[in-house]
Amino acid sequence: MKSITKQPHGQLLCMVLYFLLLPLLASAQEQKPKVFVMKIESEIDPRTNRYSKLALEEATRQEADHVLLELDTFGGALNDADEIRKRLMEYPKPVYVFINSNAASAGALISLACDSIYMAPGGNIGAATVVGADGQAAPGKYQSYMRSIMRSTAESNGRNPHLAEAMVEASVDSTLSAGQVLSLTTSEAIKLGFCEGKASSIPEVLQQLNLADAEIIHFELGTADNIISFFLNPFISGILLLIILGGLYFELQTPGVGFPLLAALVAGFLYLTPYYLNGLAENWEILLFILGLVLIALEVFVIPGFGITGISGIVVVFLSLVLVMVNNQNFDFTFVASEDLMKSMIAVVVGMIGAVILITLTWSHVVGSKAMQRMVLQNTFESEEGYRSANNTDHLIGKTGIAHTRMVPTGRVLIDDVMYDAQALDGYIDKGETVQVIDQSTFSLRVKRVEIKSVS
Hints:
The chain contains 15 helices and 13 strands. The chain is α/β, with parallel strands linked by helices.
C-alpha cells in the first residue's frame, strides 16, 4: 500500500521538473553555433600577424564556436607565418581555412595549422621554399627549419608529413625534378588527403561543415586600428618624417626655442607607434631613436660646439627611422628585399630634404603668425637699458667684446657696454669668453671666439 500511495507524488514531481526545464531545453535547441570569419588577402608580414592576433582575441570575446580563415596569399615573412601558425594551433576551438585561390609558401604553412582545409576551384597550395631578398633559395639552415615545422604541423593535423616537406625541397620526393617543389591544385590536394573539400564560397564551406544555419560573425578592425592604418599610409608617414627631421633641424639652428623639438617628438610618437603595434618597429629600434635624440640634446645643451656627438645623434636617428620601416630581425636583412630597404632610405632622405625646403619657404610666415606670436617672448629691450639692434651695425665688424651669456650657438654679447644678440660661428662659446664680430645677419651679429695673448 505504501508504494501505491507514493507513486502519484513521484509522477507529479517529474511533471513539475519537466515544465520547469522545458524553456531551458528549448532555448538550448534554438541557440545557433557561432562561426567567426577572418580574412587574410595580402603578404604575410607583421601587419597580418597582428591582424590574426586581434581577430582570435575578438573570436574569444564573441564566444565563437568555430573560426574560419579565408586565405589568399603568395607568402611572406617566415617568422610572422610561424607566429600565426602557433596561434592557430593553440586556439581551443576548431579552426578551418578556405583557400580562395592561393596558399603559397608561408600561406601553405598557415593552412596546415588549421583543422580542415577547403579550396576554391583552381586553387593552389605549396611551393614553400624559403627565399631571400633576392628571390633565390635561402641558406640550408632556413630550409631545414621550414621542413621541420611543415612536417610537424602536418603531423599534428593528420596530414602526410612527407608531402609537406616536399613543398619545401624537391630532394625529399623522388618524383620531383631538380629545382621543383611540390605545389598541389585543388583536385590533387583532395586526392592526396591534404584538403577536405572543394568550395566556391564561404557558405559552401559552412554547408560542408554542417554549419549552414550558424550565426556568422565577420571580423572588422576597430576605429583605433583604422587610425593606426591611417598613420601607416606612406603619404602620412612622409609628412611625419618631414616634421621629425625638420623639427630637429630647426632646433639645432635655434636651440632653446622648444617648439620645433616638441613638434618633432609628437611626430616621432605618431610615426613609431603604428609601426610598433604592427610589429615592424622593435623595442631596440625605438630605443635607438631615443638614443639619437638624447645625443642631439647633449650636443645642443651640454657639450660645447657641434661635433661627434651631434653628428652621431643625427646618424642614429636616421638609421632608426630607416630600420622601423623594414622587417629585419636584429640587423639580419636576409629576408628584406633590397628595394624595400632602398625605399625606406629614400623616404627618410626625401623627408629630410623636404623638411629643410619647407622651413626655408615657410618659416618667416610661421614666425609672423598670431599663433607663433603668442608663443614668442614679447618683451622689448630699450636702448636706455643697454640693448642695441643688430641692424645697421657694420661699424662693429672686427670689434671685440665679451660673451654675456653662454652661446649654443645663439646668445648675447657685450661690446662697448652695449648688449647685442649674436650667433657663435664656432657653435659654442662660454660665458665670459672674448669674442670678435665677423659679420652680421638679419637679426644678430656673427661672432667667433678669440684668444687673448698675454704680454711677457
